Amino acid sequence: MTTRLQPLTGIVPPLVTPLAAPDRLDYAGLERLIEHVLAGGVHGLFLLGTTGEAPSLAYKQRCELIERACQQVAGRVPVLVGITDTSFQESVFIAEQAADAGANAVVLAPPYYFPAGQNDLFASVARLAQAVPLPLFLYNMPSHTKISFELETVRRLMDVDNIVGIKDSSGQMVYFHKLRELVARREGFSLLMGPEELLADAVLFGAHGGVCGGANLAPRLYVDLYEAAATGNLPEARRLLQVVLRLSSSIYTVGDSQSSYLKGLKCALSLVGLCADSLAEPFQAFTGVQREQIARALDELPADYVPRLAAATPS
Fold it and tell me: What are the backbone dihedrals phi and psi of residue 23, each rounded to the nearest 5 degrees, phi first?
């Protein structure tokens, strides 16, 4: 199986991990969700990212998800697998499982808990890149890992042969623009934007695509926004960005916790009949008033992009 990875372009949803219970995959929901996003024209899938609740999942669940998803995708688009862990050896283990299942690349954020200095971070990631059997994407996520890939560290890591791209979820556009200048120096190195609200700006200025959580729900919306920005169609990009902003402001902000994004997205997916809304511990799914608020928000979003409420929704 040969799938073009360098540079990886377009919309790569960080796939939600459908759960029937906190410790059990929702198999039917996973199958429906994958077919839904592929039908929306996405350019790849990213398993076990932040939206996929990777740090909260048991290794058995992670391996089962990788195997089932890769088998179903069957080479239709590239599959990226998150291997971020506090243990170097466990990151290598998940990368090996991904390779055996047929994934195309792995994705690594800095190890969380112990805040590493940049020299230690560089050395560890460089060693890991040589130890894993698949191309490696860096994942800059300082809000969750406590440290970032500083620009000089990225510059040094770009010289490591097996490192092929970076996803920036810092939300800092000054950092992004400096990163873009770095990436332009290496042919085939991918730069992907994390926050979907910044997708259009990033692509207009040279990013190769975006890793947009909302594409689980409305894949065609994000694909169309990417294509409008990539072709310089500014009126269309502005129009579609307004829809994205409406979606994020209404679906991701229900409740008063930092988990609102994930709870809202999973609730929405349940309401439209794609998958169950169970979350891994310690989080609990929306019920009652919050679930009704998500339902009203979905009903107010454009029907040509956002699925309508299902008669009976998975729960």
Answer: -120, 20
3-state secondary structure of 40: coil
Number of helices (H) and strands (E) in the chain: give both, helices first: 12, 10
Please say if 175 is a catalytic residue.
no
Predicted TM-score (pTM) above 0.85: yes
Tens of pLDDT along 244-270?
Answer: 999 999 999 998 778 999 999 999 999
pLDDT tens-place string over residues 146-181: 899 999 999 999 999 999 999 999 999 999 999 999
Q: Decide: residue 205, CB within 10 A, 0-12 exposed, 13-18 middle, 19+ buried.
A: middle
Is residue 61 a part of any domain in this protein? Answer: yes
Residue 17: inside a domain, yes or no?
yes
17 token code pair: 């991990």
Integer Cα distance of 193 and 178 in angstroms? 13
Instruction: CATH number of the domain at 139, please.
Output: 3.20.20.70
Task: Out of 59, 113, 139, 305, pick the active-site residue.
Answer: 139
139 is annotated as an active-site residue: yes
Number of Cα atoms under 13 Å in the Cβ half of residue 88: 11
